[in-house]
From TrEMBL:
PROSITE patterns: HTH_LYSR (PS50931). This is HTH lysR-type domain-containing protein. The lineage of its organism: Bacteria, Bacillati, Actinomycetota, Actinomycetes, Mycobacteriales. It comes from the Bacteria. It comes from Nocardia ninae NBRC 108245. Gene3D superfamilies: 3.40.190.290, Winged helix-like DNA-binding domain superfamily/Winged helix DNA-binding domain. Keywords: Activator, DNA-binding, Transcription, Transcription regulation. PANTHER family: HCA OPERON TRANSCRIPTIONAL ACTIVATOR HCAR (PTHR30346:SF0), TRANSCRIPTIONAL DUAL REGULATOR HCAR-RELATED (PTHR30346). One of its GO terms (molecular function) is DNA-binding transcription factor activity. Residues 1-58 form the HTH lysR-type domain. Pfam families: HTH_1, LysR_substrate. Belongs to the LysR transcriptional regulatory family.
Amino acid sequence: MELRQLTYFVAVCEELSFSGAAARCFISQSAISHQISRLERDLGVSLFERSTRSVVPTDATARLLPLAKQMLSLESAIRAAVRTVGPRIRLAANMSFATRSLSAIAGARATHPEAEIEFVIKPFRQRITAVADGDCDLALIRGSVDQPGLEVEQLWVEDLVIATSSAHPLATRETVTLSDLSRYPLLLPPEQEQVLLHTVIRSAFAELPTGPTFGPPIPPDHTATMELINRPDAWTVLYAESPTEGLVVLKLAEHKLRIPVSAVLRSDARRSPILTTLLAALHRT
């Protein structure tokens, strides 16, 4: 049994999808399926009932899951305990924050050339856990989090992007309104995967007489680009740093769909000069 197998196991449990777990762990679906099969052979039990439509945890999975999470938490605690004491900062984020983060890191290192600042790619839940366990000094998230022992500092607010295919009836317009869009299907990932996006959309449309027309959810192993090409009458909402190659980006005439970006830190953490400089650089960017 390997710790990475437990990481993949927890991801499959939480995503209930091998493709979703693979995307979350940044590996191929075949690789994650292979590692889960190895784990099942090592333990001598079946952990998931697989079909073409669903992934169903077994009774053994229910018993293993809390222990697996405990093991992964201990791994983070061990790494934090033996970490070299020195001018080092670990920033957890995902790739959509890469441009701003690397710019801020460069600025902070110009002030503190002796500092080592790591940019660590982690999914949302793992970012929060890494900060709580002390494995990372701060994490970048969209929205907020309410968890004892953590504090949230808003850094900036970004506008969401409206995107369609070039064949959409509104694609040639310079500006559109939410009312214009309401008659066309809105494609988003399932609400349980993108709670924040769905909340922002519903709040914006709450002021209008008609709400959004939701199309089928985007499957975890599909991209917004492909879905919009297959559904040229549809539209979607993307984060500002998301790739938009092959899509038409529409400008909203009235409403702004805005979302806060925040830093998550431990409440009891001492803010070193390097961390303070990095946070100030993130605010500026």
